[in-house]
Q: What sequence folds into this?
């Protein structure tokens, strides 16, 4: 059981392998939005070269003599046709090369239309990627089990790493662990954890999320050893409204059993400075001391 | 009664015929967003040809002699004017043909403005179609009536066919059936079905949605025969947040009486592999065996 | 009191006159999105002419001799400069006229940048207007007071005029009337009306919204005369999710006292045709008969 | 304690200083969306000059003789290359200068692609800034403590400064004050204030938000002196749906202890004019008189 992978990766994605039925694993839009920037630019460049090569071939089939100015630009016919296609698809249209006759003009007209449509997709994707709402929530490296009221509580701390304003925050915390079903088969189970508060009107400073460990909590009567045996993982889903994106942002995080520290408490991370401002020390968010 | 059509088609649309009042059946935007891709490109192409023909006619009315370079491109006057309009509307502007005098320049100025506005609509629509949030939820082919706790439950299973992350899922299930109103007229009625749980924090694996058949359920005291007589259809509305679209996606599905299998149970569809990963077998989502 | 204007106009806007403080009555974006199409195109055209005239003046100040090709296009200097500016701002760039020297090139470089930015706003606005989510809900012309269960109910009927799918509908109904405050001054008051149901999972057919008239209702012990004396108006806010816009749409409607018919009932507006399809007769949505 | 800064600035931002960990203080998109317009245009202009200078350098390295038309435009080589780059990146492409040979054509092809992508970002940002949903809520300059029912209430007044329609308003009000924790350290605390009503279906006129001061209220047994001692600040978060932006808008506001007036009441700000219209006097929203 010790080799079970964590369920939520540190980047917030799920650790599930799917045996795929059919080919719809990704919507092409999702694939283009989620790939790395390097890959996105590589795909764009390949698409650009392929599309222009296609139109260059059409011009050659139609006859290079129907491109006026060909031969004067120091290029072989394919080169002339390729760069003429570039100038048409991007709508630069220098005019040093220009189409003659019905065939070349028709190919160019289709090229310009294709270019406008293709660049609408590429530039739309570029901007969608660039403006995609993303949270930059800093979570404490560990969750802790700390004194809380008369008993104990499972706690972790989070703060907004950016200057943007987060409002209407909402947290859901779930414990995931390997239990046993009626037939005695081991099965992953999910228990929502009750929180001291699930919502926060705004997050100017940090938020210490607290799960009070009462009799109904799966942490009641637990220990470091027992939660390891159960392969326990605490899964957090956080959402809030971000002013700058004018959108709700969501983020996931999780603590595996070995990221939960028992019987410590968090150190304070903010104070008032001499001018009366509230100062938040983000780099101390994970700091704790003996309880 | 047996020829009643299903209420929700397998693609999620409603099976209702409207006798239309006035002409507002579709908003033009909706019409352009929902049509097939083939049709969309055909409409675009026709619009492109018609718009350029219109401007070509204006140039001819103004006089072909006001387009410098006309006659040198191996085309009849309308051809020259048409492809000059193409070069203007797409803003390619090779310049091998260019306008002379106030009339031709004014037509060209209007053409360039029209082109920019028209292509803003076309490319905006193209991207809206391309980036439209869509779910790709795989539902089990049948709903089943299976043992549940001490009694029975109506169940169906669903999973995300894509790698994208779905969170905050919410399901609503309604039974639709032909009843009788006070005047004894047959009338389609809707009863919401209570669910074991209506929400799921996240959907990494599959979700078996369960409607416990208790005394209040319309399935209580029902049989395969009685639900056929009532023309029963179970309608599902599912929504959830998709990370990649940064939007809420919604999907509809339904099971007609002949898609409900009695007294069986679903087979498991996930297990842990040797490396500790959770493996989900999507192609077995409909598999069931005798209860 | 009879000359009081209705509070919600038939187009859904409010009938309130504001004495404005400062000049922020409209955000410019709102103004450009809400104006009529005719006005929008007129504003665009004026902006286009003014902007190009501005750049034409700059070229003339810099010297018409720095535009090569000037004089060959059959236009006076301002005309040449104006249409050269058009070709630059729209990025058509035929090249029959082109800039010479630092001044003209710098003006052209600023013109091209200005053009790209300006057209981004214009075309973005155009698409925002075109794709703005809008409901096309057909309300019955009158609300009625009809028999309901053992008593009476205020009812009105609505349906989607378009083929698009509306789901998760939610209605709020408020009665607005002139009452008297503690000092005896007449004052407009608002009372939410309780509804038989406020939400509908989906709207394939019509929805008859019912306010049961019980002791708590402001319609209890009312008559046609008394609601006229109170200048009563029933205000409806309806929202729902539209699949094609991938957005929530909202609409407002209201019934003034003289649009409420007493003691009638609605006629049915759908039936099953021979092929088993459900047929909805939208043009009969307002039909009623004696109760 | 008197030098503590207010927690919410009058422009709605938080008054918190962060000691930053790492460099992710701002997402670049947020930075570009939130900066002033003057700065945005300056950044755009600098980017435009730098990008074209970069491509101009490439053309010079490749050899100015590969740009046909160089020398005829009255510019030194770098000037020719710079403005040729401008014409390529903006896709104007006059053609008075045009590339010769593989090197120059390849640089131009990359320039046109870069230009299309770069301008997609710039124009997308421009439109995102321009169309960003923003509320223009006018709050009364002071909150007041006024007679309410049998006791008192904390009240403030707000109205929409624009003609746009706001619906589904929701207010949350929190009192923030300096209390003392178990260890006797002073600590900022937050108490939500109960409101007479938290939601409003629509906001055609003004809304007087009322917090009834009952035994549970932190204002119970308070005075002007005691709330100053506690550095009290009343924080308001308001959200509503704006028809024109087709989006939910949110706004923040706060009243510090010295902006709360005791024992006064608000004057009415609307009346009916002779034509029966409701008139709202926005400039009197802060007016109050002795209670």
A:
């Amino acid at each position: 059981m010790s080799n079970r992978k964590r369920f939520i990766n540190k980047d917030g994605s799920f650790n599930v392998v799917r045996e795929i039925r059919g080919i719809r694993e990704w919507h092409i839009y999702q694939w283009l939005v989620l790939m790395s920037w390097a890959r996105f630019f590589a795909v764009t460049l390949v698409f650009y070269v392929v599309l222009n090569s296609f139109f260059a071939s059409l011009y050659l089939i139609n006859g290079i003599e129907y491109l006026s100015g060909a031969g004067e630009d120091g290029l072989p016919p394919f080169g002339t046709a390729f760069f003429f296609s570039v100038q048409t698809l991007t709508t630069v249209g220098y005019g040093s090369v220009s189409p003659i006759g019905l065939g070349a003009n028709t190919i160019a007209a289709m090229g310009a239309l294709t270019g406008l449509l293709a660049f609408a997709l590429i530039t739309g994707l570029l901007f969608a990627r660039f403006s995609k709402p993303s949270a930059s929530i800093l979570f404490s490296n560990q969750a802790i089990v700390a004194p809380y009221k008369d008993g104990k509580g499972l706690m972790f701390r989070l703060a907004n790493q950016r200057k943007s304003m987060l409002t209407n925050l909402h947290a859901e915390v779930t414990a995931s662990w390997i239990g046993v079903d009626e037939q005695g088969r081991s099965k992953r189970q999910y228990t929502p954890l009750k929180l001291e508060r699930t919502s926060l009107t705004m997050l100017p400073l940090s938020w210490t999320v607290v799960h009070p460990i009462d009799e109904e909590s799966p942490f009641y009567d637990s220990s470091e050893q027992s939660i390891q045996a159960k392969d326990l993982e605490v899964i957090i889903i956080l959402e809030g409204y971000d002013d700058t994106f004018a959108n709700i942002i969501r983020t996931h995080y999780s603590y595996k059993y070995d990221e939960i520290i028992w019987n410590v408490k968090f150190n304070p991370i903010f104070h008032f400075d001499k001018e009366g401002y509230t100062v938040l020390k983000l780099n101390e968010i994970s700091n704790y001391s003996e309880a």
